[in-house]
Description:
alpha/beta, Rossmann fold, six-stranded parallel β-sheet, three-stranded mixed β-sheet, 10 helices, 9 strands, globular
Amino acid sequence: MLRHVLYWATPVLEPVLWSLASRGDTRTAHRARHLLVRRNQQQLDRFGPASLAEFDRRVALLGPGDVCLDLGANLGIFTEKLAATGADVHAYEPDPHCFAQLQDRFAGRPNVHLHPKAVAATSGSFLLRRTRDFLDDPDVQSTSSSIAVDAPSIYDETNAVMVETMAFHDVVRGLGKPVALVKMDIEGAEFGILDLLQQDREMGKNLPIGALFVETHERHFPDRFPMVRDLRRAARAGQQPFLIDTFWP
């Protein structure tokens, strides 16, 4: 009974759940995280289709001369969708397994520019963790590889590889022209980037970006639930430097 009350009484009890979820590896923390993840999934189920529709609407407006970023390109599903418009697509993918497939898939496509790097808040070198089952099915398991999440229950350090990262702001500014659309699915590394955009709104205003569609991974970082809520509220109030859609499913 209490679980159902907590689940539906979201406006009042969310701060309590955030606090409980951050209390380490306790039974109460696990239950609070479970409720928060369920609630977040409910929101994604409700608003995710509109996010995809807005993404498709913006893709339909792209054409030759436009520039897009696919951050966390994986095997290139969205790279393909963006490239089909004739726009220049810069696809960043740090996993060597995936990057090799991107090279094969987009060979001879002059409007697709492949970068064997991760994108994060800062440039440097990071450990890309792969799941324990990575070698069984790398095409599927690579979607969960992360430079940000450190969960022994999910990842096997023996599968990890060191990868180079580029700072998001350097990537955008280095293009030398406006970026019409950014798709970001980088398994937790998005939070450092979103932090910078929120902390320095002037910096965000000065970035030539039309729209950012980002999948957030707060299920791995319970303390990030309030941040995601605030981003969504800012989006509804039109208080973002550019569209930041966090309902990317």
